[in-house]
Amino acid sequence: RMTVSSSLSSKVETIDAADDGGRVETALSATIDYDIANNMVMSIGGGISNSDFIGTNRDDWTYAGNINFEYFLNKNWSFTINYDHEVRDSNLAAFDYTRHRVGIGAKMKF
Fold first, then answer.
1. C-beta separation of 80 from 69 below 8 A
2. What is the mean pLDDT of the chain?
3. With the CA atoms of 35, 41, 47 and 53 taken in that order, what torsion angle do they form, in degrees rounded to the nearest 10?
4. Which own/partner pairs from 89-94 qualify as long-range (CB within 8 Å, at least 24 positions apart)?
5. What is the distance between the alpha carbons of residues 54 and 21, in angstroms, rounded to a whole number?
6. What digits encode the pLDDT tens for the residues 75-97?
C-alpha cells in the first residue's frame, strides 16, 4: 500500500521587536509512505520553503528531504531510523547552512 500526501501553506509571523518585523513564509512539501512489508513502513519526503523577512532585505530558501523506516515489532512496540537533509540558502551568507541528521527511536503504545 502506498499513500501520497502534500501540503502548501503561506503564513505571516509577526514579531514585536524594534529590529524585526516578522516574516512571510510560503512552503510546499510532499511525502510518500510505502508499506514494505506487513510490519514495516518506509516514508520519503521533501519540501521547499521561502521566508521573506519584513522590514529587511533578507530572503531565505530552504530545501529539505528525508527518509524514515518504521518497524512494528508488535501492537505495542515499534522502532524507527531516519535521515534528514536540509539546506538553507539565504541572500545574506551568514544565515546559510547545510544540516544532516540521523535518528533512531523506539515507541511504546499502551
1. yes
2. 94
3. 140
4. 89/60, 89/61, 89/62, 89/63, 90/58, 90/59, 90/60, 90/61, 91/57, 91/58, 91/59, 91/60, 92/57, 92/58
5. 5
6. 999 999 999 999 999 999 999 99
Residue 3, CB half-sphere, CA atoms under 13 Å: how many? 6
pTM recorded for the entire structure: 0.82
- Measuring CA to CA, which residue among 54, 10, 49, 11 is closest to residue 29? 49
pLDDT in tens, 42-78: 999 999 999 999 888 999 999 999 999 999 999 999 9
Residues, the chain: 110
On whether the CB atoms of residues 24 and 12 are closer than 8 A, the answer is: yes
Predicted local confidence at residue 48, as pLDDT: 98
